[in-house]
Amino acid sequence: MDAGRRASGRDLGLRAAGVGRRGFTLLAITAVLTACASVPTTTAPPGDWPSIRTSRQALTHWQLSGRAAVATESQGWSAGVSWKQADQVSDLNVQGALGVGGVHVRADGESLDVETSKGEKVSGEDATSALERTLGVALPIASLRYWLLGVPAPGSDAQEDVDPQGRLASLKQNGWSMTYDRYALQGNDWLPRRVRLERGPVRVKVLVDHWSL
Model confidence over 93-131: pLDDT tens digits? Predict the structure, then answer.
């Protein structure tokens, strides 16, 4: 009889221990799921595109650095690029372009100055031709300062396609087509990480490594 009670007691103890283990497991899983749910994500809530567009177009001081690749019917190259915007002055540097060397471009909306790695300095009306001759593509500097920020250039018609996050997905303006397929979160703002630009046979890809606003 005592042996039976001891056996029964052991069975109850084992069942209780099993229930306890299952309960502990459920609590542990619940704790893990709760912890996972509370981990902050790297996404930002959807933004208001009209407000984003207006505030981004009004930015007067910003910088980026990264890489660019250009392909045309007759040539192609890749290089490191940096852009510095200070008020109306756009300062673009292209360094290490395969078969091109380097080029420094300065534009203020009214004038354009181009200096190549070969020491050629051109200003005024001839600068646009010199830039196209050096890079193999006529870059629209005045519009590019806005396109790189992920907004259309003000003052001309544009076709915009905005994604659910309130970010520009594609843009058509001034004969160019832009695709934005990668973004980087800077604080609470999404800024383009990769931009593809096309016009006829010309293909330009810009990959941004670093933003500074």
Answer: 998 765 557 899 999 988 999 998 878 899 987 888 888
What single-letter DSSP state applies at residue 153? P
Report residue 58: phi and psi, to 5°. -85, -5
Task: Give tens-digit pLDDT for 157-185.
Answer: 999 999 999 999 999 999 999 999 999 99
- H or E element, residue 111: none
> How do beta strands 176-186 and 101-107 pair?
unpaired
Q: Provide the token pair at 167.
A: 């970010």
63 Cβ contact list (under 8 Å, min separation 6): 82, 83, 84, 85, 211, 212
Q: What does the alpha-carbon distance between residue 39 and residue 37 come to, in Å, rounded to a whole number?
A: 6
Strand partners, 104: 93, 115
Residues 137 and 70 sit within 8 Å (Cβ to Cβ): yes
Quote the Cα angle for 89-65-91, to 5°.
15
Q: What is the pTM of this model?
A: 0.77
